[in-house]
Design brief:
Number of domains: 1
Main location: membrane
Transmembrane segments: 6-27, 140-167, 173-194, 215-236
Radius of gyration: 24 Å
CATH class: Mainly Alpha
Distance between the termini: 22 Å
Membrane topology: Multi-pass membrane protein
Subcellular location: Membrane
Keywords: Membrane, Transmembrane, Transmembrane helix
Strand content: 5-15%
Strand order of the largest sheet: 4-5-3-2-1-6
CATH architecture: Up-down Bundle
Shape: elongated
Largest sheet: 6 strands, antiparallel
Number of helices: 7
Order of helices and strands: HEHHEEEEHHHEH
CATH topology: Butyryl-CoA Dehydrogenase, subunit A, domain 3
Length: 252
């Protein structure tokens, strides 16, 4: 194996490993989107009622998003979290604690992940919003598809190392290309879904929102996957081409 191809293969493997770590961290963390709002100091009966509704498995989209707006919420693919005063009586386990406030999280159930979104959030009589429904489902499923494709590609790459041949890594490159497209699709679906949600549920005054570092990890993962794919395919194709030319020259 030529040193050029071996170097390209090693670099592609490193890029693949980094992108896999970034993608796994992105899927497992809760900071795809973050809201910034003044911390609520008091715990009135109204606030307690809102927190209880937020913790309920039956909380609709409007209910938990309004709480996210008011209490410095963060949203991931699996969980939603808010920052509340420490003296609130809530049975759910706390995750972090600082300056008399604690962060409370609730997981999205599998049924919530595939639940229909409505034209007017929280109003079941308003009709189903198919665009937001499928955007939500895609942003949840595509990262797992991407991660699975990269793992499968890694197995093929391992087989290529065992066989001491670069040709099977063409399949690894194609799988990384598909993984990159899935990651890019997930990011795009998430951005579109957030924008459509904020068109229907306006942010209150003094509340701002921004994409978090979990989202940024997914954004960085996509180009790494594309670069790894290009290197895998180039190394395998060029090595195969030179081997064919060399074999033809020897026969001649």
């Amino acid at each position: 194996m030529d040193n050029r191809f071996a170097t390209a293969f090693v670099i592609a493997c490193v890029l693949s490993l980094i992108s896999t770590i970034y993608m796994a961290a992105s899927i497992g963390t809760d900071f795809w989107y973050e809201y910034r709002s003044p911390v609520q100091e008091n715990s009135s009966d109204l606030n307690k009622s809102i927190w209880v509704n937020f913790a309920s498995d039956e909380a609709d989209e409007k209910t938990y998003n309004e709480v996210l707006f008011r209490y410095n919420g963060t949203v991931g693919l699996w969980r939603r979290c808010i920052t509340v005063p420490q003296n609130v009586d809530w049975n759910n386990q706390e995750r972090t604690e600082s300056f008399d406030v604690v962060t409370r999280c609730m997981s999205f159930t599998l049924s919530e992940q595939f639940m229909e979104k409505f034209v007017v959030p929280g109003d079941q009589n308003a009709g189903i919003d198919l665009l937001r429904t499928y955007l939500w489902r895609c942003q949840f499923l595509l990262p797992f598809v991407s991660l699975g494709l990269m793992c499968f590609g890694a197995l093929i790459g391992l087989c290529a190392c065992v066989c001491r041949s670069l040709y099977p890594t063409i399949a690894t490159g194609i799988l990384h290309l598909l993984a990159g497209l899935c990651t890019l699709g997930s990011v795009s679906c998430y951005v579109a879904g957030i924008e459509l949600l904020h068109q229907k549920l306006k942010l209150p005054e003094n509340v701002s929102g921004e994409f978090g570092w979990s989202f940024c990890l997914a954004c960085v993962s996509a180009p790494l996957q594309f670069m790894a794919s290009a290197l895998f395919i180039w190394a395998a194709h060029t090595n195969r081409k030179e081997y064919t030319l060399m074999k033809a020259y020897r026969v001649a």
